[in-house]
# Entry
Amino acid sequence: MGTLDRSELRIAQDLQQTGLTRSSAMLAVVMATREYDRPEKDLAEIVRQYPGLESITEARLAIRDLLHREWLTQAVIHGTTMTGRVPHLAYLIAAHLGDQGVADRLLAIRVTLEPYIKILGPMENSSVFHSYLDLLRSAQGEICLPMLVTPPYEETVRALHERAEAGVKVRILLAAPTLAAKWRNETMRSIYNERITAWIREFHNSPTVEIRLSRTPEDMELATCFSVDGEIVRFDIYDPYRQRSLEGVMIEVASPQGMLPNFVRIFRRLFEEAWSNSVHVSPLARFLWLLRKQWKTWLAILFLVLAFIPAPVPHWSEILIGISCGIVAPLLIEEIPRMTRTIRKWRNR
# Structure
């Protein structure tokens, strides 16, 4: 069911009191705030999600009524007759009610995401970099920053330190050297290690900054994209397997008050998945992560090693070797789909 706030419902009720049917009053308010522009039959289906318009018959009658009142208009565009609101519908409703303040309330309610979506331009433009720093400095709650092999640039580090000192949580996700070298150049592996060390050195005394390493190519497809406060997402559009991030085009999606666009939700979900798959930067944490991830393999090896240790138990070796094989067999079956996907991706490159 479509959601209307109290102001919209009140205006629709006021319209009913002046003689409009409930469906016509509701449709007038919906068209003033949602601004649908579709073929008449399609429009009737779209507005059925709103209260009072659930019946297709009522929806069609309401459209006909508002067309007769000249609150809706029709125009032929590319051979298709489109039905939509007249440009000054909010003022017509206000005049009908004898309250010019109604127009201001309807325009304030107007639902549109267009002002919140921006194409910022090619990544190499200096304006994209400077606005990136400004956005980092505006963070009040959290910064999520996945990067492939980006060095800790001075201005970026300064902005992150500033927000971290103000209590903002900063999560930096870097590519593990093995993954970075695979994507870019094996001869650069030592440089990638230096950059990771530099990031760690910059923030080792910052309790609100956490740095992790990603070993998963799919997770690092988010590299150079980032979010601020879970409400603004910048997305660098490029081919991560064939291009550098600086060859991309940056777009920005912000969240209006009380709303969270699907694009922002998608980034948040993907980043959280990537973060949960990542490993802490300390050697001990990386070892424990590997141990935890491959615990079945290590368990199979343990049973295999124990099988060759003499013990006063009948068929000791056969039992433990059987257990080890029982653990390994399903692991191999589980790995087949992943290996198939990896081979397919490698062939498609």
The longest helix spans residues 316-348.
